[in-house]
Amino acid sequence: MSRISRNLQKWTQDILDLPQDLLFDLPRLTLIGNHELHIENHRGVIQFTSEKLVLSLNDGALEISGSGLSIRAIQSTEVTVAGKVQHIQYIERGGKP
Amino acid sequence: MNIPTMIYIRGYLKVRVRGEQLPSFINALSEAATPVWEIKPTGEQSAEFKLLLSDFKGLRPLLKKTGCRTTILERHGLPFRTSHLWKRKIFAAGMVIFFFTLMLLSSMVWNIEVEGNEKIASEDVLEAAHKEGVYTYQWIFRLKSLDRLSADLTAQIPGTSWVGVERKGTSITIQVVEASVPKKPVLQSPRHLVSTADAVITSIYAEKGVPKVQVNTRVKKGEVLISGILGDEENQRSVVAKGEVKGLVWHEYQIEVPLTKKKNVLTGEYKSKSYLVLGNRAVQLWGYGDVDYEVTKTLSLYDPLTWRTKPLPFGWMSEKVMEVQQTTETITEDEAKRQGLESAFRDILAKYGAETRLVGQKILHDKKENGKVYMKVLFEVEESISKELPIVYNQGE
Question: Which InterPro entries does this UniProt record tie to the protein (chain A) (predicted)?
Answer without folding.
Answer: Spore_YabP/YqfC (IPR022476), Spore_YqfC (IPR022477), YabP_sf (IPR038705)
